[in-house]
């Protein structure tokens, strides 16, 4: 297998070309694969994951300090915690199609390991550690900046903490009221499963147009899931439009 060719897509996604592609390969080796292939030349990515946790924390801390010099230590810590957590790391890893490149054992593959949040979050940290070992801090900072661009963009600069104190239903409502002067409508489309373990399926619409669907173990959780998806879909588009209610 040609390592550089196989991983060209991932390197393009993070916009970094490894001088030592073996580091990239190791960052993608889940322990289940290594356990099932004892003759493999690779060790698992858990050591890289450990290092990546520290590398990511340092990189995000530096970028936050540069963007929000007026924030106090506690505020910066809250911002970092809102960015560096399993849920957000997994979402970003999915955006990179990182799961497609992972080496998994058969059992992990069958159980949907390529989409497991914990596994994806760990793999992203291992990947960033590999970049750090390959090119140092000066290489990993731009990679982190690109991957986390949605959290570090200029639209967050004035009031970076406001979003942390509002749930997604509130944020979506404020966004749509500001641009359309209307509020979203939520519909419970169906419920599935036994009474003790139900799953709720919800849609959120604006002026009759469905924006997103969400699921959850209760109605509130499902609505929040739908609101988050709708908010993340609309925000980049609406930020480019005038906030005067004339948009349609």
Q: Would you state the CATH class of the largest domain?
A: Mainly Alpha
According to CATH, the fold-level topology of the largest domain is Ribonuclease iii, N-terminal Endonuclease Domain, Chain A
How does the helix and strand content classify structurally? mainly alpha
Number of helices, counting only DSSP H or I runs of 4 residues or more: 13
Residues in helices, as a percent range? 55-70%
Shape category: globular
What strand order characterises the main sheet?
Answer: 1-2-3
Features:
single chain; 248 residues; mainly alpha; Ribonuclease iii, N-terminal Endonuclease Domain, Chain A; Double Stranded RNA Binding Domain; 2 domains; three-stranded antiparallel β-sheet; 56% helix; 10% strand; disordered C terminus
Q: How are the secondary structure elements laid out?
A:
Elements (H helix, E strand, L loop, with lengths): L2 H4 L1 H7 L6 H7 L3 H6 L9 H22 L5 H11 L2 H10 L10 H5 L6 H19 L1 H11 L1 H4 L15 H13 L4 E8 L6 E8 L2 E8 L2 H20 L10
Antiparallel strand pairs: 1-2, 2-3
What do these coordinates show?
- By secondary structure, the protein is mostly helical.
- The chain has 2 domains: 3-158, Ribonuclease III domain (Ribonuclease iii, N-terminal Endonuclease Domain, Chain A), CATH 1.10.1520.10; 166-238, Double Stranded RNA Binding Domain (2-Layer Sandwich).
- It has 13 helices and 3 strands; from the N terminus they run H-H-H-H-H-H-H-H-H-H-H-H-E-E-E-H.
- The chain has helices spanning 3-6, 8-14, 21-27, 31-36, 46-67, 73-83, 86-95, 106-110, 117-135, 137-147, 149-152, 168-180, 219-238; strands spanning 185-192, 199-206, 209-216.
- It has a 3-stranded antiparallel sheet with strand order 1-2-3, with helices on one face.
- Strand 2 (199-206) and strand 3 (209-216) form a beta hairpin.
- The radius of gyration is 20 Å and the shape is globular.
């Amino acid at each position: 297998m040609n390592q550089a060719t196989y991983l060209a897509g991932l390197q393009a996604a993070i916009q970094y070309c490894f001088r030592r592609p073996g580091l990239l390969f190791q960052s993608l080796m889940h322990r289940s694969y290594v356990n099932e292939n004892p003759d493999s030349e690779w060790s698992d990515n858990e050591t890289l994951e450990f290092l990546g946790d520290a590398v990511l924390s340092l990189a995000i801390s530096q970028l936050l300090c540069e963007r929000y010099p007026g924030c106090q230590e506690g505020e910066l810590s809250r911002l970092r915690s809102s960015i560096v957590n399993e849920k957000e790391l997994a979402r970003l890893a999915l955006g990179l199609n990182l799961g497609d490149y992972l080496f998994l054992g058969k059992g992990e593959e069958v159980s949907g390991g390529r989409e497991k949040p914990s596994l994806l979050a760990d793999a992203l940290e291992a990947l960033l550690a590999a970049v750090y070992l390959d090119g140092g801090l000066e290489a990993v900072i731009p990679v982190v900046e690109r991957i986390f661009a949605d959290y570090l963009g200029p639209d967050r600069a004035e009031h970076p903490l406001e979003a942390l104190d509002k749930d997604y239903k509130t944020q979506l409502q404020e966004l749509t009221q500001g641009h359309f002067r209307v509020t979203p409508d939520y519909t419970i489309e169906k419920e599935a499963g036994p009474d003790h373990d139900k799953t709720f399926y919800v849609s959120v619409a604006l002026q009759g147009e469905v924006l997103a669907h969400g699921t959850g173990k209760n109605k509130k959780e499902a609505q929040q899931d739908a609101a988050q998806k709708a908010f993340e879909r609309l925000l980049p588009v609406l930020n480019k439009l005038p906030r005067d209610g004339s948009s349609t």
